[in-house]
Amino acid sequence: MGKDRLYFLTFVSIALAVMLSATIGVNYSVKISVNLFLESELETGKSEVKKLAYFIAPKTKDSINEITFTKRIQEVLEEVETSTTYIAVFDKEGTLVCHPQFDEVNKEVAVSRELQNMINHGTEISEIYNMLMDYDRLNYDKETINTIEVLYEKSIKNTELKLASIISLDKLLPQIIKLKRRLYTIFILMGVLVIIISFFTVRYVGSFYEKKLESKNLDLENDIINLTKLNLGVFTYQQKIALQQKEKQTDKVEVHNDNQTENQKNRLLTYKGNELIPVFFSDIAYVFTENSITYVVDKDGKKTVSNASLDEIYGNLDATLFFRANRQYIVHITNIEKIIKYGNSQLKILILNSDADILIGKNKASEFKKWLNI
């Protein structure tokens, strides 16, 4: 149930992120596209107007017949296929005297140069875009008068006429809306694809790590079980040794010489400074070697030095009571506090009243278990 909720929240999060990215991306892309289109149309219209004004301009004012001249321009414009931008001619009063569509000639129009000024003055893209989107709410009555946006205009030499490059907002706005829809469609398709891929990727990665975590948890459980068995084995063995030692104690009277001989077999001669100190095997907590020196530590934590090597000492000890943990340490069973895991495959023996790091390697661990009869 928890995993399903996590996957659902992941799906919702990715979907919201894609929707937000699509909204921002589409609006920004449309604004950039519209701005680039307007700049391109402005330059194209400017070039066409200049060329046409140069070629059709009469040589002198006296050589012009206005009716014939405008008729000739009208014929030229009618041959040009109109698109979003087109060229038209105005007289000095602002009346439209030539237009690619003859029906529009001599109609009263309101000329707007707002778009031209915004582009020329480097107005921000967002403001130009907002101006176009607010086109239907401009302050004029569209039922009585038409408003046209002039991108560029130039006077025809030796006449009172003006050539103008005009952009048809009625044609531009549907193109913007169409572009917007196409971009939304593309972003939606891409978004759906991203959501599906991301969702299944998250599920796959989640399942992979979940299995890995389950495997680690299983290994951890096994380690805990094994350590529990090991520590229980240590405790059981300690109890067994304690019971055996208790049973060996008798009340019989022994000869002094026999006691002396027995004591010599159950003790290790060590020294501290110039003082010789005998240590009974039963009092040894652990023996270790460091820098080629063998140290003997008793149950009270007192440390003395022995001239014997670790191998020699181990040969004289009872193998049922002492264990050779590694090349450096020999430990007494009764002084083992507990066993813990160390690293990936090692065990660490904790000794009572000591902070010694006694490690048992992977290969030695099985021998240690056999020693404990596990």
UniProtKB/TrEMBL annotation:
The keyword DNA repair does not apply. It comes from the Bacteria. Residues 269-374 form the HTH LytTR-type domain. InterPro entries: LytTR_DNA-bd_dom. Keywords: Membrane, Transmembrane, Transmembrane helix. One of its GO terms (molecular function) is DNA binding. The chain crosses the membrane at residues 6-30, 183-206. The keyword Transmembrane helix applies. This is Transcriptional regulator, LytTr family.
